[in-house]
Structure formats: structure tokens, C-alpha cells
Please model this.
Amino acid sequence: MAVPEIYRTRMLEALAHATLALEHGDVPVAALVLDASGAVIGAGRNERELRQDPTAHAEILALQSAAAATGDWHLTNTTLIVTLEPCAMCAGAILAARVPVVVFGAWDPKAGAAGSVYDLLRDRRMPHRVEVYAGVEQERCAAILLDFFEGKRG
Model:
């Protein structure tokens, strides 16, 4: 399945946003919510350390931002762009918001829930399934995470 060019462009924007999480020691992950025209209507980056909140993942904050901007928690006709494969918590929020398309960069082999460890977004038992574009700008998305974690170990 060919990846629309706007998804690549927006992924690069999300990567730039992810670097802002480094300012407060958070894992550099960011997410954008696009409306049907491709305009950004919500954005978020990891803020677990900043807020001391285990639910302050980039996807959750981006979904909250988009819901506030639209005045509706039903985020149908949107696309979520995120630099790292969503975890189970975030996949649940994506499903609850009825987001039809998710685009992610780096795979998460430890906690991913969009095709690596689990595939909640496309699970036939769920009332809503999501179209997933995986590995968009994967090398760049993985590199920022590898640099972050190597710095923590070094």
C-alpha cells in the first residue's frame, strides 16, 4: 500500500515536535491529528515526566487537543500521525475516538499494539478497525529514540 506523501511530510513535522519532549526529559515521541483536508487539528508530545502522569503519552494528548479543537470526541474523518507505534493504552484511545487512519514511524517491539506485539487497531473483535500505515520515516523515527536511550545508559 503506497503511503500518501502528506503522511511523510507530516511525520517529519511530528519528529520536529518530538524533540521538544527532550527539554523535560521525556521520551521523544510526538503525534499529530489531521482533519480530512490534511490540516493539523491536534498535537501532542510525551509529557509523562513533565506532568508526572503515566497517561501523558503523545497520542493521548494529541487526541485531547483535537477533540477540544473540534468540540467533539468523535474523531471520524481524521488521521493520527505518531513517531512510535502506539501502545495498548493509546490504541484503546484511538479506537474509542473512532480514528480511522493511523500512521506511525518506528516499531515498538516491546509494547507496540499496532502490529508488533499486539494488533489492537485491526483486531476483528473490536467494534472499529483502523487502517494502519507502518514504518513511515522509520529510520529517522527510530534514530531519535535510540539516541535518547543511549544517552540514558551512557
